[in-house]
Design a protein that fits this description.
The chain is an alpha+beta fold and about 230 residues long. Strand 9 and strand 10 form a beta hairpin. The termini are far apart. Its main location: other. It is found in: Cell envelope. It holds the Pfam family BSH_RND. This is HlyD family secretion protein.
Length: about 230
């Protein structure tokens, strides 16, 4: 009787061990399959940021800044008066030259002047971003860029928006690596160290992507570029 109990315990233990090994094998095979699938169908990276082309707002004449109507984050329209300068010795007929206007419809992302400062035409008093032209700049390993093409679809995640997803298209693929303007790295012994270079890729948001006007320049992002069966 005792022998039968021991034998049964051994069989049960063996079944448990086999079951555990099968479960581990399923998990490992699943993980490997997922990795292979992701590698075949996508190029992914979290080395990406939200950015935009910035437009300078500058005065037309020299003079003291008397008024600046606008704060960072404000939306402005083209030709809206943002600031006013002291005209100095200019005639009243030249009053328009003392007015500083918005060159585009946009968002004030940076103020760089304060009331009371003496300004010259080469001084930037503010930077504007076009809310319809925010985009992603991501850095892709040079070994992966051969799989990329302009127009490929992209899934975008932005840290600021958590689980919310955005979509876009590959707009351009750089022809110069990030380190192209700096000397190649060498070891302490003076030997050349070959490293994988990063190529900048520009991704334009789809028009259907909402909240674009609320993006913050510099937001961290992750992208997944569809490289197979892409239309």
């Amino acid at each position: 009787m005792k022998f039968n109990i021991i034998s049964s315990m051994r069989k049960n233990r063996k079944k448990v061990i086999i079951g555990a090994l099968i479960a581990v094998a399923v998990v490992v095979v699943g993980a490997i399959s997922y990795y292979i699938y992701e590698h075949i169908y996508y190029v992914s990276t979290d080395d990406a940021k939200v950015t935009a082309d910035l437009i300078n707002v500058s005065p037309q004449i020299r003079g003291k800044l008397l008024q600046f109507d606008g704060d960072e984050g404000d939306t402005v329209v083209k030709d809206q008066i943002l600031a006013r300068q002291d005209m100095g010795s200019l005639p009243d007929s030249s009053i328009d030259q003392s007015l500083i206007r918005a060159p585009i419809d946009g968002i004030i992302v940076k103020k760089q002047a304060n009331v009371g400062e003496n300004l010259s035409p080469d001084k930037t008093i503010a930077l504007l971003a076009d809310p319809d032209n925010f985009y992603i700049i991501t850095n892709i390993d040079e070994t992966e860029t051969r799989r990329l093409q302009v127009g490929q679809s992209v899934d975008i995640s932005i840290d600021e928006y958590g689980a919310q997803k955005f979509t876009g298209k590959v707009k351009s693929i750089g022809h110069m690596s990030q380190s192209a303007l700096t000397p190649s790295s060498y070891s302490d012994k003076g030997k050349y160290k070959k490293t994988v270079q990063k190529i900048p890729v520009k991704i334009k948001f789809d028009n259907s992507s909402n909240l674009k006007s609320k993006f913050t320049i510099g937001d961290n992002a992750s992208v997944k570029i569809h490289v197979v069966n892409n239309k």
